[in-house]
Amino acid sequence: MTDRSPTPHAFGAYRRKQRLRIEFEAVGGVRRDVRRRHRILDPLCAPEQQTADLAIRVRTGMAENDLQQRLGNAALHHHIAPVMDRGGSVIEACVPAEAIGWRLDRALAAAMPNLSRERLKTLISSGQVALAGMPVRDPASKAAPGPYAVAVPAPTQAHNEAQEIPLVVAYEDEHLIVVDKPPGLVVHPAAGNLDGTLVNALLHHCRGELSGIGGVARPGIVHRIDKDTSGLIVAAKHDKAHEGLAAQFKRHSIDRRYLAITSGVPKQGSGTVDAPLARSPRDRKKMAIVESANSRHAITHWRVIESLHEAALVECRLETGRTHQVRVHLQSIGHPLLGDPVYGRTRPAHQRLLKELGFHRQALHAARLGFVHPVTSETMAFESKMPADMQALFSRL
Predict the structure, then answer these.
(1) Cis status, amide bond into 145, omega within 30 of 0
(2) Residue of 3, 42, 195, 226 marked active site
(3) Which helix (H) or strand (E) is 148 found in, with range?
(4) What's the CATH code, domain 8-152?
């Protein structure tokens, strides 16, 4: 009678096959069954030998806890240790009781106030988050109590140079900074102004405090002020603050008020300009009131504070914040900003005074900025007096 019992070699091959029947499942949803492959990827092999975008889960055979322990140790070695070697940090995060069962990215955002949900999505998807030693790669998976190990790489350095430029700081904490910008200072580097900007100044002033906006050590600029406009501007120091401030600007809940000196005195004491803005079809360097698919909704509420000599001090409250919004809207009602070289025409009564004072910019100042603190939820408001050059102009009028 023929002995049909498996040979030791055949039996060993059979057992190995059963122990390592693992299905590799691509993050994008494409399945790859290892039974169709000539080689089974070893979960303990070097990272460069593994397919980077694969998540691994046990199907049959080897005890799940055993594989999780082995794979978890390898994952922590491959993903977290290099992060620490590059100056990053590993944060232990416990999900709040009320957040258990939420999407993982949302729950971790509630547990980690300095990281935005978008930043956590990126970290989860790239394998930087582990639970019980096992990488978790799906931001939409349900959150467990934890603790989760979150590997946060050190922020890469911004390509802009940190420069020691004097700043007037109206307020600062570990989350954000409010600066009273002088006229003549560009906010963000761009063609023609690659340095000497507010961003360069903030990189120097906040050195060592920027935990990264999108993984880059830079200040989070959520709104801008024209180069020759002075006044208050807020910048975030980390993702969570940046996300919170940006959401308020998107909802138009920020309190922004400008002081403007207009050419001529408006006949009405107050009013609202509700007119969409877009690039001028005649001059691409200018903005204009344009009704088109590319136009952006813009609303400015204004009121006369004081009548002057063929001029007026006007407060403008912005419901939206578009490029050159105040300048274009006031021009549209026949009262452009005094000194505005782009949208205004200087009256004969003002030409001599502007020349005498050396006033060569639009008379516009961001005088008030109010918002809800994106981390502490405290309502905050800041005010700034007109700078010396604009105050001198106002006094002479």
Answers:
(1) no
(2) 226
(3) strand 148-152
(4) 3.10.290.10
